[in-house]
């Protein structure tokens, strides 16, 4: 596996893992997107790790009631960017309650008939019944992702406004509103690999745990469908880049729709294209093969399109294929188009449950120090295995009450 690609993949994971939001409050418009250029894997910043309160709380301690949630960048606010996935219980107003609980997946076969099922992160209220898809915060004034009248989920990359950090184009990331803990994801999509520099992706990712399972297609070679997985990508922890593989296709992924599938069980990860499980179209990684590095925490489904060719990091830009062209006058636009997506959880939640219902993914209080502890009444615990790997309890315990995931727990085992 070539070195440049390795670097690039890491950065992709950082870029997709989160948008690092530095804001004085939810009302502030001065936000900074972490493009992953500097401190990769800067998936997020454990602002409160090891110290009480929220790093940039106006009151100096935990966030105030008016802006109760401590973001991963250590700022207080009350919308999805603060209370959503990377909210830090320890610095929040009420460590037990301020961060929104995270919903688990229902069976979903989405043919994108309803544009209102996709919302901007800033407009998302945390209720999964209100949206299936959330568009990550974007630097662009106009949205770069939408469900179109012809029933496609479309992600756009253009340089109608230059990216303030890279000078390149601005793309989009769309996340599922719910979290999957084992199951199958499938999507029929056409990549944006119509020119060097673009990166199209269909992945499972958690910026809480740093786990990730990927399909990535770079514009440099639209036939080269790359698979990859990551385990616990966290700041300060070495990242293994050797797991990338190529499912080389005979046809151009940007010319036609193809079906991309990831099957993820407690014992294996399988990638297959157009339903074919053969040497050319598939990849099968078992838990034994992955050693102690088998992604096993809840993740969200994500579609991403971004400009890798304009990254200042040479590894990334080489991998994606530099330079991304918007020539001659920035009128060129790259489009990734998804016809449908199907999410089939191993243990689906019943659809139409009131929210929050009896089962959800809840972060533990930071004061637990990652040593287990209450995630709610009788719920499974986060513990540590012999190898030091966090043992989120088995899938079967999902059938019980509350499922816990803890930033603090992951952090403590990562740095232990
Ligand atoms: C994946 O590999 C495991 C172990 O080698 C095997 O048991 C399983 O059948 C394989 N799956 C497929 C679809 O080939
Ligand atoms: C690519 O972009 C870099 C940075 O802007 C520039 O220095 C270089 O000349 C460009 N290469 C080509 C082939 O246009």
TrEMBL record:
Disulfide bonds join 69-83. Residues 1-23 form the signal peptide. GO terms for biological process: carbohydrate metabolic process. It comes from Actinomortierella ambigua. Residues 51-101 form the Chitin-binding type-1 domain. GO terms for molecular function: chitin binding; hydrolase activity, hydrolyzing O-glycosyl compounds. Keywords: Chitin-binding, Disulfide bond, Glycosidase, Hydrolase, Signal. The keyword Hydrolase applies. Residues 370-386 have a biased composition (Gly residues). Residues 95-349 form the GH16 domain. InterPro entries: Beta-glucanase-like (IPR000757), Chitin-bd_1 (IPR001002), Chitin-binding_1_CS (IPR018371), ConA-like_dom_sf (IPR013320), Endochitinase-like_sf (IPR036861), Glycosyl_Hydrlase_16 (IPR050546). Pfam families: Glyco_hydro_16 (PF00722). Residues 360-388 are annotated as: Disordered. This is Uncharacterized protein.
